[in-house]
Design brief:
The chain is of the alpha+beta class. The chain contains five helices and 14 strands. The structure holds zinc ion. Zinc ion binds next to strand 11.
Length: 226
C-alpha cells in the first residue's frame, strides 16, 4: 500500500462552538516498529500498517484529565501521565483502514463512536503488541475496550489514572461461555508478556458477571511506559 494517499476534508464544530475546517491526511508509508511515546502526543500518529493520521487538539477534553502529579506512582512517573493533548478526529477518521495486519482502526474506536464520542487516541505501540499477540496465537482477537475519555472512564468505574485514558491500554475479550476460556485467557496473558507489553492483568483479575447471562471477562494489557 506504499504511496497510497487520500485526503479527507470536513468542516467540524470547533471546541469554541464555531466551525473549523480540519484536514486529515491519510497516507500509507512504510510500516515500522513504533517507538514508545508519552502524552500529550504529537501532530500525527503512524501505525504498524504504515497508516499515518493527523491529530487535532481538544483543549476542553484535555482539561478533564487528572493532574499528572497526583498519579499513584509518584512524581517520578508524571511524564507518563501528562494530559492527552492531541486526538484522532473520529468524525473524519478513516475507521475502515487497517492499523496493523489484522486490525482496522474501527476495532479500536467503535466503542467510542457508538457512545457519541468524537475524540480518541490509539497508541501505535499497543497496536503493534496486540498484533504480535494475535499473530503468535494464530487466531482472531476481539478488542473490547481501548480509549476512554476521562468522563466515560468515570461512568464505567475505571481507575482514575487508568491507562485507557492515555490510549495505550487494550482489553482483549475472553468468552466465558467457552469451556476453554481460562486456557485462552492464560494464553493471551503469556503471549502479551512474551512480546514485551509493559503491564498485563490476567483474566482472573477482571472477570465480571453481566446480567447473569453471559460472563464477560478480558485480559487487560497496556504500554504505560514503565
Ligand atoms: Zn483495561
Amino acid at each position: 500500500m506504499s504511496g497510497r494517499r487520500l485526503i479527507l476534508i470536513l468542516a467540524i464544530s470547533a471546541a469554541c462552538g464555531g466551525k473549523a475546517s480540519v484536514s486529515v491526511d491519510v497516507l500509507f508509508g512504510d510500516p515500522s516498529i513504533p517507538t514508545p511515546t508519552d502524552p500529550p502526543y504529537g501532530n500525527e500518529v503512524v501505525y504498524p500498517s504504515g497508516l499515518r493520521l493527523g491529530l487535532i487538539p481538544d483543549a476542553v477534553l484535555s482539561s478533564t484529565y487528572p493532574n499528572p502529579d497526583q498519579n499513584p506512582f509518584g512524581s517520578a512517573r508524571s511524564q507518563h501521565y501528562q494530559r492527552v493533548g492531541m486526538f484522532l478526529p473520529l468524525e473524519i477518521a478513516p475507521t475502515a483502514e487497517r492499523v496493523s495486519e489484522n486490525f482496522s482502526l474501527s476495532e479500536y474506536v467503535n466503542a467510542t463512536v457508538q457512545r457519541g464520542g468524537t475524540r480518541a487516541y490509539v497508541d501505535p505501540e499497543v497496536v503493534w503488541h496486540v498484533q504480535l499477540v494475535r499473530s503468535g496465537l494464530g487466531r482472531p482477537l476481539i478488542v473490547s475496550s481501548s480509549f476512554r475519555a476521562p468522563g466515560h472512564n468515570r461512568d464505567v468505574g475505571g481507575a482514575s489514572f487508568s491507562r485507557h485514558l492515555y490510549g495505550d491500554a487494550v482489553d482483549i475479550d475472553v468468552d466465558q461461555n467457552r469451556s476453554d476460556a481460562n486456557t485462552r485467557g492464560q494464553e493471551i496473558f503469556n503471549e502479551a508478556s512474551d512480546v514485551g507489553v509493559d503491564f498485563v492483568l490476567p483474566l482472573e483479575d477482571t472477570s465480571v458477571d453481566v446480567s447473569g447471562l453471559r460472563r464477560v471477562s478480558w485480559v487487560h494489557l497496556d504500554d504505560r511506559g514503565f
